[in-house]
Design a protein that fits this description.
three-stranded mixed beta sheet
Length: about 110
């Protein structure tokens, strides 16, 4: 999650804006523990009826992509439609620049766009 938050913040502050949104949101995972073995797998299976389904897990990201409520909002992180404050290292300029540069290098793009 730290990388997701830092990448979102970097994109919001480095790229020119044309009215688009550059925020990210927490998604709830279902199927956690599916690949576990032994007692952990049994425990995980017991929790399955209480876990949210994919519709709940995708709610915040889908809302971020479509909601007019957040037009013009960028560089924020959301959990259940609410802005949350993230750890200071997720908005540390030097760390975010390192992450951005590494990501650009990995996909063959220049770090300065």
């Amino acid at each position: 999650m730290t990388g997701q938050r830092a990448s979102s913040w970097s994109a919001a502050h480095r790229l020119p804006h044309h009215g688009e949104r550059r925020s990210s949101g927490h998604y709830q995972q279902d199927g956690l523990g599916r690949d576990s073995r032994g007692a952990l797998r049994v425990f995980s299976a017991m929790l399955d009826p209480f876990r949210p389904g994919p519709d709940v897990g995708a709610d915040t990201p889908a809302w971020l992509a479509t909601s007019p409520e957040i037009n013009g909002v960028s560089g924020r992180f959301f959990v259940r439609h609410e802005t949350v404050i993230t750890a200071s290292h997720t908005t540390d300029v030097a760390r975010c620049n390192q992450l951005w540069d590494a990501g650009a290098r990995l996909v063959g793009l220049p770090s300065e766009l």
